[in-house]
Amino acid sequence: MEYINLGNSGLKVSRLCLGTMNMGSSSWKPWIFNAEQSAPIIKYALDSGVNFIDLADFYSAGKGEEVVGGIIHKLVNRDEVVITTKVGYGTGGGINQTGHSRKNILSSIDQSLKRIGTDYVDIYMLHFFDVDSPVDETLAAMNEIIKSGKARYFGVSTMTVGQLAKILISCERNGFVKPINMQLQLNCAYREEEREMIPFCIDQGIGVSVFSPLARGILSGEMSSTRNTTDFFTQQMYNDAVSFEIVKSVNKVAQNKNLTMAQVAQAWVLQRPGIHSMLVGADNVDQFKTAIQALETQFNDDELYEIDRNYTPCDLINDYTSEKRISRIAREAKGCFVDVGV
């Protein structure tokens, strides 16, 4: 396993991060694994050297933190792993049980620590940018949590560059601790964060961790999975002609290299500039093995061009662009991939 300092911090994390949105309770979503199903995946990840584990209070309405936390404590000493969890979407239905108000943040951290079974999390993350809460209020609460020792660092996720800049300005103005991690979506079929967000994070010394490297599964070729047939987000984000052309290109490169589509797609993400860690939400041990193999996968110029050639600009994927994305048009193939069948 490879390790890297997360941004300009001293925190060392594995290049692969265990994604756990699929662990908790199927009463939340039909594709969620229970503790018995999740344990072998978690054990394999830890045995393979993964020390970075991603959680959120939102996952299975809190049950995800309970399930994953319980398994981790049976397998490894707490200080050997980097645990991150998120606040924002919440676990309850109350009007003050979501968002990034001081009330919800201070309440949510205590509930998350109790569910995970730990005195602290390594990174406490804002799950999105809450436009309804004053940024100074939000960051004062996050700063207080870090000063109290309930979190060692804080991070952010899924927002615009302007919103991240607003957070950094508030930190500067008030002397608050700054975020060390930006978690964002990046894959062959969605690259908008490469235009401004990732270069901005590089400039500011903020580590970048990537979720959905397989574009919610379409880049693995598994369109008939339970998740893809029940999760409307897949249709919202990747139901366009360009996305499907990119899937075909990834398949062509995979066939050319005698690899799986998933390995090609994940290797592409791991080699992008500024990417520190990639989340792996595996449904089984073999899928995690593929991600490990992706760490050593290399591409030649023709292969990279084939993966890249279909991509065209699109709307950002975030809470504000849901159901508003515009279809795209691909470029023509060239080189050894002209007239190559799928």
Class from helix and strand fractions: alpha/beta
Radius of gyration: 20 Å
Q: Could you state the CATH homologous superfamily?
A: NADP-dependent oxidoreductase domain
Low-confidence stretches: none
What's the CATH topology name? Answer: TIM Barrel
CATH architecture: Alpha-Beta Barrel
Distance, first to last CA: 33 Å
Overall structural domain count = 1
Q: Helicity range of the residues?
A: 25-40%
Order of helices and strands: EEEHEHEHEHEHEHEHHHHEHH
Based on Cα principal axes, name the global outline.
globular
Mean pLDDT reading:
92
Task: Please provide the count of β strands.
Answer: 10
**Main sheet: which strands, in order across?**
3-4-5-6-7-8-9-10
Count of runs of 4 or more consecutive helical residues: 12
- CATH class, named Alpha Beta
The proportion of strand residues reads 5-15%
Query: What's the story with the biggest beta sheet?
Result: 8 strands, parallel, barrel
